[in-house]
Design goal:
By secondary structure, this protein is α/β, with parallel strands linked by helices. The chain contains 20 helices and 30 strands. It has two domains: 20-413, ANL, N-terminal domain (Rossmann fold, 3-Layer(aba) Sandwich); 527-646, 2-Layer Sandwich (GMP Synthetase, Chain A, domain 3). The strands form eight sheets. The chain has an eight-stranded mixed sheet with strand order 12-11-8-6-7-14-15-23, sandwiched between helices. Bound molecules: 5'-O-[(S)-ethoxy(hydroxy)phosphoryl]adenosine. The site of 5'-O-[(S)-ethoxy(hydroxy)phosphoryl]adenosine has 23 residues, from helix 11, strand 20, strand 24 and strand 25.
């Protein structure tokens, strides 16, 4: 059988377009939808909220905006787990696969969990959580690897109206502790460990460090890697034992549309991660419609989003989105190169994945490894590709398009943030165009603009800062947990209380499509992970031998950016051993992604007269760019030493 062509040849403007076959297949293919939504975005979202989501009580007010706060679907009652599970079972889809879980060890078989089975597990675990005292509004920490118990735990919280806060499993115990303290979680769900490239990794040890001195009273432990762990009686409980005892029925608790569904901690421009707050009704509405329209999910699709569930992408596209539309999602435990560099493509071929969503950093890595790995497998089941997390360069885009998509499949380049909850800028596969390096058009009902530093809109072909305007899309953050002030200062100060500042630079490709060029603040994207320079600086500076430090990103061929540290020591002697010690220290404080790629020991950091570290100059030093006027520094003499240390050739 010849595989269907879903895109046309590239036209003279550099665009690919959906073919008739794609337009016919797609859930939406009429471009008029954009104009219709733009005319009255509130009406558009209200219609979509009613059409896509089941409400136990209808909402009365669509949108309320009292700057800097906004609310959606007021008066409406809803339960997210009901929308992801019960309604599909009621509609007769109970036997359909909800999750196909592929374990890392190649000798373990994939496990299919149907909607009916997932619903039963979620009800049981919700009852188990209840048994541990969890009530509506309580916070529950989740520190789990890529195993289906993570969706069970998230949905069980949602069922009770409890608020989950997932922490990436590769983060350290210290990082987890900071999150548990901030969210004052009552229960933590974790596992004994997990497999990473064949080796079992202990997670419970980290969890033990983390819960010490926090409000966590019970820890639930999933047995996954067969690791011997210590279990404190009265505090630690095995997941399977609680499940065995739990009753099978737990009614979903209808909550207000604006009830908090989860917090997710992410890096900002300061050292401390902030708890992004997402509520229920608006979030579910966009999770649903972005899966329907942008990922174009149909009943026969198998959707694989490779993101870890510890990130927002994992929340929206490895849980709430695909399950709310009743799709089948693939969930993979392992690394892309274990046991070999073709593992992902083997998983695609074996499971006939149709919609595949990953990050540019992974694409660049595969491109570098070579075509022989994907070529080993039949990838013709794929009909749509997606990317997220950072700008994608033309070379990586074309490699993805040709080698993975066989030149037949559209790529949706989806721009969004932890804060936006769901994707906001991307082409729709039935409408197009698909343009390498261009994310595309704001989703219907979303008003995004590019402005200059005076907040004046820039024209076609011009660049500036990406902003969002009211009505702010329903899935967007409502605040920062326990920190309204920071919410205002981060997002609603740059251009005043009426404009959401994304922190990204962007450029109009034409009068409709946007190219996002990357962060303009102190946020780095390291292999798709979000980190702030301040966060890494705090970790380095917490080492007793460090007097002062500055961290800046350096461009990296595969990972997009990597952190580089400039360190002034407290009298200690610089050595390779100390360098390794500091790198390890950061890894322990935050996690492996934050580990500086290089550390330069220097005698002084360049400072302005007011004492601020000139990070811009450090960046220029690393990229051999002109350093600008160095005479205005407080310590111009430091520059020669810095040039020498970094091997500056500018
Ligand atoms: C960047 C990830 C260009 C951007 C969902 C944003 C992108 C930050 C894209 C948010 C894209 C995300 N093209 N840049 N398609 N998608 N970004 O919170 O800088 O981890 O502000 O959310 O990633 O990262 P976060």
């Amino acid at each position: 059988m010849v595989a269907t062509n879903w895109v046309t040849e590239r036209d003279k403007n550099g665009c690919f377009w959906p073919t008739e076959a794609m337009k016919k297949k797609a859930n939406v293919s009429d471009p008029k939808i954009y104009e219709k939504a733009a005319k009255d975005p509130e009406k558009f979202w209200a219609e979509k909220a009613k059409e896509g989501i089941e409400w136990s009580e209808p909402f009365k007010t669509v949108y309320e905006w009292k700057p800097p706060h906004y609310k959606w679907f007021l008066g409406g009652k809803i339960n997210a787990s009901y929308n992801c599970l019960d309604r599909h079972v009621k509609a007769g889809k109970g036997k359909k696969a909800a999750i196909i879980w592929v374990p890392e060890p190649a000798n373990e078989k994939a496990i299919t969990i149907t909607y009916e089975e997932l619903l039963e597990k979620v009800q049981k675990f919700a009852n188990a959580l209840k048994g541990l005292g969890v009530k509506k509004g309580d916070r529950v920490g989740i520190y789990l690897p890529m195993i289906p118990e993570v969706q069970v735990a998230m949905l069980a919280c949602a069922r009770l109206g409890a608020i989950h806060s997932v922490c990436f499993s590769a983060f350290s115990g210290e990082s987890l502790k900071a999150r548990l303290l901030d969210s004052t979680a009552r229960v933590l769900v974790t596992s004994d460990g997990y497999y990473r490239r064949g080796a079992p990794i202990n997670l419970k040890n980290n969890a033990d460090i983390a819960v010490e001195g926090t409000s966590v009273t019970s820890v639930v432990v999933v047995k996954r890697a067969g690791i011997e762990v210590s279990m404190k009686p009265g505090k630690d409980y095995w997941f399977h034992e609680l499940m065995d005892k739990a009753s099978k029925e737990c009614k979903p608790e209808p909550v207000d549309s604006e009830h908090m569904l989860f917090t997710l901690y992410t890096s900002g421009t300061t050292g401390k991660p902030k708890g992004i707050v997402h509520e229920t009704g608006g979030y579910m509405t966009q999770a649903y419609w972005s899966c329907k329209w942008t990922f174009d999910l149909h009943d026969d699709d198998i959707f694989w989003c490779t993101a870890d569930v510890g990130w927002v992408t994992g929340h929206t596209y490895n849980c709430y989105g695909p399950l709310s539309v009743g799709a089948t999602m693939l969930f993979f435990e392992g690394a892309p190169d274990f046991p070999d560099k073709d593992r992902w493509w083997q998983v695609v071929a074996e499971n006939k994945v149709t919609v595949f969503y990953t990050a540019p950093t992974a694409i660049r890595m595969f491109a570098l490894w070579g075509d022989q790995y994907p070529k080993k497998h039949n990838l013709e089941s794929i009909r749509l590709l997606g990317t997220v997390g950072e700008p994608i360069d033309e070379e990586a885009w074309m490699w993805y398009f040709k080698t993975i998509g066989g030149g037949r499949c559209p790529i949706v380049d989806t721009w969004w943030q932890t804060e936006t909850g769901a994707l906001l800028i991307s082409e729709l596969p039935g409408i197009g165009p698909f343009i390498p390096t261009v994310a595309g058009r704001p989703f219907p009902g979303v008003t995004a603009e590019i402005v200059d530093d005076q907040c004046k809109a820039v024209g076609k072909g011009e660049g500036g800062f990406l902003i969002l305007k009211t009505p702010f899309p329903p899935a967007m953050l409502r605040t920062i947990y326990n920190d309204d002030e920071k919410y205002v200062s981060t997002y609603f100060t740059e251009y005043g209380p009426k404009i959401y500042f994304t922190g990204d630079g962007a450029r109009w490709f034409d009068d409709k499509n946007i190219r996002v060029t990357g962060r303009v603040d102190d946020v780095m994207k390291v292999a798709g992970h979000r980190l702030s320079t301040g966060e890494v600086e705090n970790a380095v500076a917490s080492h007793p031998k460090v007097s002062e430090c500055a961290v800046v990103p350096r461009p990296h061929e595969i990972k997009n950016e990597v952190p580089i540290a400039f360190v002034v020591l407290k009298g200690a002697v610089a050595s390779d051993a100390l360098k390794a010690e500091l790198m390890d220290h950061v890894k322990k404080q935050i996690g492996p992604t934050a580990k500086p790629e290089e550390i330069y020991f220097v005698s002084e950091l360049p400072k302005t007269r007011s004492g601020k570290i000139m990070r811009r100059m450090l960046k220029s030093l690393l990229t051999n760019k002109p350093l600008g006027d160095t005479t205005t520094l407080q310590n111009p003499h430091a520059v020669d030493h810095l040039k020498q240390a970094t091997g500056y050739k500018g």
